[in-house]
Design a protein that fits this description.
About 30% of the residues lie in helices and about 10% in strands. By secondary structure, it is an alpha+beta fold. Strands 1-2-3 form a three-stranded mixed sheet. The longest helix has 9 residues.
Length: about 90
Amino acid sequence: MALASTLPMEAAKVATMHRAKRTLLRLAWRSVVGEPALIGSHGHAEAKPTGADIACAMQRRLGLLKGKLTVPDDLDSPLPDHVLADFEGGN
């Protein structure tokens, strides 16, 4: 977040802190794609969210848990009756 003293007021409409909390995901995505977003109070900008590089944000590490998990052979077999009863709210 940048300081308000470096922000031009005409760059974007200032979102209140309350509105920023409600729409944080939307503000974050706007900053990632380069749209200006300002957060503040009483019309004065206090913070400017800056987005990380979208390629970095969307990158996933494949094989992170390779060799650390085991899948049982009976994974897709039916559940025992007492376990089914717990899921279905039975006694």
